[in-house]
Design goal:
Elements (H helix, E strand, L loop, with lengths): L10 H8 L4 H6 L6 H7 L2 H11 L13 H16 L13 E5 L2 E5 L1
Antiparallel strand pairs: 1-2
Helix pairs in contact: 4-5
């Protein structure tokens, strides 16, 4: 099997691959790889596809969007706030443990 350069893939295939990469990684890492990747990641097409894939819009979406990248991040933030309305970071949120000591219940953080 011949091994080639990923940049030799058709742009449509690269865009499809990028729809599966987390948006944060696209902007912080992938966009810096080369000018081709930067240009593809900046395309409206990619961010509209990501919105479709995440269910933020449907195929028949007809409302104008000024910036699909911004729209994507705002919708993903909205989606996350619906699941975590206090915007708590589960990694840093204190956990409480209950301990029973001689009939009394102690709560510890």
């Amino acid at each position: 099997m011949a091994v080639g350069n990923i940049n030799e893939l058709p742009e449509n295939i690269l865009l499809e691959l990028f729809t599966h990469v987390p948006a944060r990684q696209l902007l912080l890492r992938c966009r810096l790889v080369c000018s081709l990747w930067r240009d593809l990641i900046d395309l409206v097409t990619l961010w509209k596809r990501k919105c479709l894939r995440e269910g933020f819009i449907t195929e028949d979406w007809d409302q104008p969007v000024a910036d699909w990248k911004v729209f994507y991040f705002l919708r993903s933030l909205h989606k996350n706030l619906l699941h975590n309305p206090c915007a708590e970071d589960s990694r840093t949120r204190p956990t409480r443990t209950a301990q029973k000591t001689k009939g009394a219940l102690l709560m510890r953080e």
